[in-house]
């Protein structure tokens, strides 16, 4: 039984245990624990909730509490000391190796003890805050230990939160999906792509479908091209060992950029239910035209910044791309012959994520452009033309802007992980990727990965504005 997402009803939600597998890791400290603390402070967690950490390190109770306090990653003055203490009181720890099935049996005993103390079977939400290579072993051990079993009374639920990347190609993604299906139904699986939870991303749909003036021109008759840019000023920053086997296309292209493309290009769903929105996202991704090996040199650019091979953890002869630009096309009437450029890179001149929609004009200098800025300085701007004052009929460009930072309600906006955890608690999958979306993304990206060597690897300087 799913509960209402109305914040006023949160204290009345069924008691829930949030299990973080890998609670001592970087993701838990940067994202999960701060998000849970913010939700707790806003009274948006059930009145009865517990957080159980699971990891391989051994701690005494006090050592663990101090570790959690140090990992909350909050600014001084954001919370009262009493609230922080009460929040930490909800957290306990079970030590165990991820490949030791007996540790999962102990974890089950701990969860059962909480159920017994509260006198009822609780909801269980498992978050895999671990490297993807550990997914298979952890999921298998969860299954062997019966941790995924739902309450026999039919009141509670069991769900799982899993982070990207979802596989390394379409075959490994299918294998992971098959394993997940042994444990959970599709409505229990919450695949995190945190970009979907950004407020500016959600505003793309609102802008398109809540404003009748724009949707009629959102098609090939009026749109010249679309440019999706995800730029990073930093390099791999000590993550070379993780990044080098993956590269930019797997790290950002298969996940974040596919989701951005889907929101920009999808048709209006029948309703704004999670099922209909995810169905339309998947449908448009399935219509991406495959890029053959002979088209690679024309449609794909890849690069690597100078000094990348000297980064710790990077192979000395690495050909891993830190930059890519793909010219994609969607095989539907709405987007016939409209090129969609997907561009991502590290060590570029600035950090930004934005989407430019170029409308057809007399020439490049006379094009109207709608820009969605996802981060930083979230907002929307429209480039239009007005007459230049004077006797001659000349025009000049002007910009109409909306910025979230100008909104008085900015401080009330949840961050991406707050929103994701909130939605996982209430069972809303709108901001999570479906199986169909994952498979469609890999169907497009895998042939490109296979043929990357058909495209020269360009070396570019750090701080470059444009590669190739």
Give a nutshell description of this structure:
The chain is α/β, with parallel strands linked by helices and 468 residues long.
Characterize the structure shown.
This protein is of the alpha/beta class and 468 residues long. It contains 13 helices and 16 strands. A hairpin with a 7-residue loop joins strand 13 (379-387) and strand 14 (395-403). Helix 5 (135-144) runs parallel beside helix 6 (170-183), helix 6 (170-183) runs antiparallel to helix 13 (435-450) and helix 10 packs parallel to helix 13. It starts with 15 loop residues before the first strand and ends in an 8-residue tail after the last strand. The model is unreliable at 1-8 (pLDDT under 50).
What is the rounded distance between the termini?
54 Å
Shape category: globular
Low-confidence stretches: 1-8
Whole-angstrom Rg: 24 Å
* Estimated share of beta-strand residues: 15-25%
Count of alpha and pi helical runs? 13
């Amino acid at each position: 039984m799913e509960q209402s997402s109305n914040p006023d009803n949160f204290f009345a939600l069924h008691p829930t245990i949030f299990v973080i597998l890998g609670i001592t890791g970087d993701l838990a400290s940067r994202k999960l624990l701060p998000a849970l603390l913010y939700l707790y402070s806003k009274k948006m967690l059930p009145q009865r909730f517990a957080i159980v950490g699971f990891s391989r390190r051994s701690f005494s109770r006090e050592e663990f509490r101090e570790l959690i306090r140090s990992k909350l990653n909050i600014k001084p003055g954001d919370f009262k000391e009493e609230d922080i203490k009460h929040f930490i009181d909800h957290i306990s720890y079970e030590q165990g190796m991820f490949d030791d099935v007996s540790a999962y049996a102990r974890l089950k005993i701990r969860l059962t003890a909480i159920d017994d103390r509260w006198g009822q079977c609780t909801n269980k939400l498992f978050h895999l805050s671990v490297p993807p290579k550990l997914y298979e072993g952890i999921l298998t051990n969860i299954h062997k230990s019966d941790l995924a079993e739902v309450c026999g009374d039919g009141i509670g639920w069991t769900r799982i939160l899993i982070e990207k990347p979802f596989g390394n190609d379409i075959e490994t993604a299918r294998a992971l999906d098959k394993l997940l299906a042994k444990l959970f139904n599709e409505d229990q699986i919450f695949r995190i792509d945190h970009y979907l939870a950004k407020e500016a991303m959600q505003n793309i749909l609102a802008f398109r479908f809540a404003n009748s003036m724009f949707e009629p021109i959102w098609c090939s008759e009026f749109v010249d091209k679309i440019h999706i840019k995800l730029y990073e000023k930093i390099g791999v920053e000590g993550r070379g060992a993780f990044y080098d086997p993956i590269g930019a296309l797997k790290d950002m292209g298969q996940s974040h950029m596919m989701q951005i493309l889907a929101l920009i290009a999808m048709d209006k769903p029948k309703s704004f239910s999670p099922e209909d929105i995810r169905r339309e996202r998947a449908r448009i991704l399935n219509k991406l035209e495959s890029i053959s090996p002979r088209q690679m040199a024309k449609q794909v650019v890849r690069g690597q910044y100078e000094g990348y091979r000297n980064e710790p953890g990077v192979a000395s002869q690495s050909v891993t791309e830190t930059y890519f630009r793909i010219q994609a096309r969607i095989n539907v009437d709405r987007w016939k012959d409209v090129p969609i450029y997907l561009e991502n890179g590290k060590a570029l001149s600035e950090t930004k994520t934005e989407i430019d929609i170029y409308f057809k004009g007399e020439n490049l200098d006379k094009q109207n452009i709608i820009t969605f800025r996802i981060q930083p300085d979230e907002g929307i701007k429209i480039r239009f033309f007005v007459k230049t004052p004077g006797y001659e009929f000349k025009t000049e460009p002007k910009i109409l802007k909306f910025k979230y930072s100008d909104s008085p309600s900015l401080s009330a906006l949840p961050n991406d992980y707050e929103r994701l955890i909130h939605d996982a608690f209430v069972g809303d999958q709108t901001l999570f990727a479906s199986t169909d979306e994952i498979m469609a993304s890999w169907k497009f990206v895998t042939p490109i990965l296979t043929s990357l060597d058909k495209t020269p690897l360009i070396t570019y300087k750090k701080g470059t504005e444009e590669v190739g």
